[in-house]
Structure formats: structure tokens, C-alpha cells
Write a structure and sequence with these properties.
With about 300 residues, the protein is mainly beta. Helix content is about 5%, strand content about 50%.
């Protein structure tokens, strides 16, 4: 039932820690999901240094899904968006042929508070890799909610068990958040060929194994999986149909190595427009090393 167990790799960013789950050496993607980072949890005092912000930087070939349990992040991008994302909300940015954006912690800097959430990247299918860039915000009230037998869930994106999220997707997939009381059980159907379960808080039992906080279990296809909470737990499940192999270099994702090389040249030469409302600084292009450079946390 469980093909692989991935322990998140923690990186200290100074003001808070980020746990990288995907990509992983033995498992680059789950369905179209190619990047999965846990931000926090960290209770921060007012006065967060500006160095904690993510300055403007570029993307191609992917969508970013930012989903928070606690805190607030301000997003600005080169299609003119300026939108904070808060608990239970979704900021969806599709880069397609190219976009730049920043992520800043302005409210936490002013007021302090808890930061806790996940940023996921979704690789676009071949025919949509060069689509026009765009941005969409979804409130928590817009997302479908499950509430039964000790499980309160929210379908963040895609389709699962006949329920459809309004969050825009470009290929078959699902992404769900479950809050589970001690002893509660939830079934993850086998309707997608690739699925994974990540424990954000607490612990669960899955296929006879105990899965602790900060761990992702990648499931074998073909059979439903039952997740049982061992104490109160917060669980994320995601997956979908694979879109094919992808190259990933810094913040660029593509089915073509040559397209990534072009994106690197475009950013280095200043040919990618900076965010309209945040264009005074940017992250320089890092040197190319080997075949692949993983993204920086909170990219």
C-alpha cells in the first residue's frame, strides 16, 4: 500500500524553518505536484526582518498553490495582482510562459503571530506549459467542506469523491486538507494513479504503519487507503494523473531543457517584467550547477 515514506528535510531560513518534501531523490513528483514545502509552524514576534521576505523572482511552466493554516502572506506579481492570503484561503498563480512575483510578511512584521502553511507547485501539462500567466484568489468560504464522524475537511483543488473545488486546475488532480479528531478515520479513494498523504500535525496510522508529523507517505495505485488519526491530527492528501517527466532548475519547470535555458537567459538579461507593485528589487539568477537545481524554500 505504501510505496515510499519521505521525511521532510528542514532548512532554517533564520526567521523560521521550511520543510522540503518534494522533489525527493527517489520521487520527483506525485501526479502533477512537483514541489511541496511546509512553512513553519513558527510564532514570530513583531519586527520580522525584511530579509525574511521573498523578493521578486520568476517562474515558468507551473502553478503555485499557497495555502495557510495560520498567518498571512502578501503576494504581488507581474500581471498586476496584489493579494494577501490568510488561513484556509488559496492563492493560485499560474506562470505558464512566464511570471514574476514576491511574497512578503508585512502583517506579521507589524503585528507578529503564528505562520504555518504549505506551498505546492503543480507542473502544467505539455499543451498548457506556455499558457498566458494569471492569478486567482479563493476565500475559505469558496472551498467545499466535509464535516462528519470527527473529520472536518476542505477540498483545496481538483476533484475527489465526486466533489469539485472551484480552484482552477489544468490537469486531473486533487488536494485536500483534513482536520481529524483522535480515533477518526477517513478513506482516500483510488481514483487517481498517484497519491500521497502528508501529516502536518500529530500522527496517523496508514496501511499498518504509523506516519508522524512532517512525513509524506506515497501510496501504491489501485486500492483505497484508510487513514486513522492517532490523537488529533492535520492531514493533507494530494495527487492526480502524471504529466510526464519535468526538468526543474531554480524556479523554472519545463518538459524542455532548452526552454529552461531560455528562461534563465531572459531573467539574467532583464527581459522578464517585475511585479507592478514591487519592482525595486529582485533575486539574481543563481549559477547553474549540474543537471538540476532545486528551488529555494518559499519560492
Amino acid at each position: 500500500m505504501i510505496e515510499l515514506v519521505i521525511q521532510q528535510r528542514t532548512r532554517d531560513l533564520g526567521s523560521f524553518e521550511v520543510g522540503r518534501v518534494l522533489p525527493f531523490a527517489q520521487r520527483r513528483m506525485v501526479g502533477p505536484y512537483i514541489f511541496f514545502d511546509r512553512m513553519g509552524p513558527k510564532d514570530m514576534a513583531p519586527g520580522l526582518p525584511r530579509e525574511a521576505d521573498v523578493r521578486p523572482h520568476p517562474h515558468i511552466g507551473l502553478s503555485t498553490l499557497t495555502y495557510l493554516f495560520d498567518g498571512e502572506i502578501m503576494h504581488r506579481d507581474s500581471v498586476g495582482s496584489e493579494q494577501a492570503v490568510g488561513p484556509g484561503e488559496v492563492n493560485l498563480m499560474t506562470s505558464g510562459s512566464g511570471i514574476t512575483h514576491s511574497e512578503r510578511f508585512e502583517r506579521l512584521r507589524r503585528e507578529g503571530g503564528l505562520l504555518d502553511g504549505i506551498q505546492a507547485w503543480v507542473a502544467l501539462p505539455d499543451e498548457r506549459e506556455e499558457m498566458d500567466p494569471g492569478f486567482w484568489h479563493y476565500t475559505s468560504a469558496a472551498l467545499p467542506v466535509f464535516d462528519a464522524d470527527g473529520v472536518v475537511g476542505r477540498l483545496i483543488a481538483g476533484r475527489l469523491s465526486g466533489v469539485v473545488s472551484p480552484v482552477r486546475t489544468e490537469s486531473p488532480q486533487f488536494y485536500v486538507h483534513w482536520d481529524m479528531r483522535d480515533g477518526a478515520r477517513v478513506s482516500l479513494p483510488a481514483e487517481y494513479p498517484e497519491r500521497a498523504v502528508y501529516v502536518a500535525r500529530g500522527a496517523v496510522e496508514l496501511a499498518g504503519q504509523r506516519i508522524e508529523q512532517g512525513v509524506m507517505a506515497v501510496l501504491a495505485p489501485g486500492k483505497p487507503a484508510t487513514i486513522a488519526a492517532d490523537g488529533d491530527a492535520v492531514v493533507m492528501a494530494l495527487g492526480g494523473d502524471p504529466v510526464g517527466p519535468r526538468y526543474i532548475d531554480w524556479n523554472f519547470v519545463s518538459s524542455s531543457r532548452e526552454r529552461i535555458d531560455q528562461a534563465r537567459e531572459d531573467w539574467s538579461a532583464g527581459r522578464m517584467k517585475l511585479p507592478d507593485l514591487d519592482n525595486e528589487e529582485f533575486i539574481p539568477l543563481p549559477p547553474k550547477i549540474g543537471e538540476m537545481r532545486e528551488p529555494e524554500p518559499m519560492s
